[in-house]
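Our consortium's second objective concerns turning raw sequence data into structural hypotheses that experimental partners can test. To show how far this objective has progressed, the report includes one record in full. It was chosen at random from the queue rather than selected for favorable results. The single chain below, 210 residues long, was entered without modification.
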Amino acid sequence: MNVRLVGAAACALVLAGCGQSATTATTAASDPTSATATPVNSAEDVVTGENLASVPSTEVVDAVIADGEALGSTTYDLTGCPDTPRAAVADKANQRYWLCMDGRAVTDEIPMTTASSNYGLPPVGTYEVFARDENATGIHGEPLERFVAFYTTPRGNRIAFHEVVDQDPATVGDLDQRGASSGCFRVRESDSVQVWDFLQIGDPVVITTN
């Protein structure tokens, strides 16, 4: 069994124009949204309920360790987990997300920073991971590490979990920081590692609130 040691879990949304370019990427071959996107102002994007499909992953994570404990050995009383081997649930209103296995939450709530509620993307719904880029580039040229994309805007820009940039990591999850991101889910470094190790192509990401 392959086991990788990581820190406490956490995820993040990619800025509206994130993922324009990438190196070391795993992308669903049949998904047209994996192509390079033209950067746009996030305010120009239109709210839609588009659900992106992708090819189910054949890659399986044997185990992920958080705080010295294998995910799945402890469960938490959190809602929204789909009955799939792996998933993430995101509560944008409270700036929190959690990871799931087989319909159960296997992490507590983890802080994240997203775009404002006025931005509205991605809408409430269930989406699928369609790209995993170890390194991507944001609309302002900033490097984005461990980019796990699950939604594409009507303008063709990808939204993803990634390590926090242009923000004090200590403020990730603070409600007064909501809107600091242009669209992506920013998470702390150790949490981005856990999300990267855990979520695979085809895994669901459930958005429960705007």
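The partners drew two points from this record. Helices lie at 189-198. The chain has a mean pLDDT of 78. Both points have been shared with the crystallography group to help prioritize constructs.
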